[in-house]
Amino acid sequence: MIRLLPDENISPSLVNKLGDEGVYAEAVLHVGLSGRSDPDIWKHALDNDFAVVTTNARDFIRLLSMEVHPGLIVLRESGLTRAEQWQRILPVLEEIKGFGRFELHGE
Q1: Phi then psi for 14, rounded to 5 degrees?
Q2: Helical (H) or strand (E) element with 73
Q3: Segment (H or E) for 65
Q4: What is the rounded distance in angstroms from the CA atom of residue 107 to the CA atom of residue 49?
């Protein structure tokens, strides 16, 4: 099952929308990581098998030094509205579903 951890720059309200799509998600804000460093967020993601969703590509890409990790989804634009963020994330979910190797919750 894919598990997503939206970073602080992603609307935490998308957690419910992700759940509606069968994806387990927890927002950084909701798990006590608000204001924490990117390495702290990345460690939480690794320890709990979450792919991070962020607009902060530069900092998180530097943390990808290990061969195996749950993943990183980068929205290449910052300052997007919640609806715009959702419009960018939804095609990614469809692509993941198309790979067939990931089981979305409830499928």
Answers
A1: -70, -15
A2: strand 72-74
A3: none
A4: 19
Side chain identity at residue 20, one-letter code? D
Each of the 107 residues of the chain gets a pLDDT tens digit; together they read: 789 999 999 999 999 999 999 999 999 999 999 999 989 999 999 999 999 999 987 777 777 776 667 788 989 888 999 999 999 999 998 888 776 545 555 44
Using CA atoms, how far residue 46 sits from 5, 22, 65, 84, 103, in Å, is 10, 21, 12, 27, 19
Identity (one letter) of the amino acid at 12? P
Cα–Cα distance for residue pair 15/21, rounded to 1 Å: 10
**pTM of structure:** 0.84
Is residue 7 within 8 A of residue 28, CB to CB? The reply is: yes
Dihedrals φ, ψ of 4, to 5°?
Answer: -115, 140
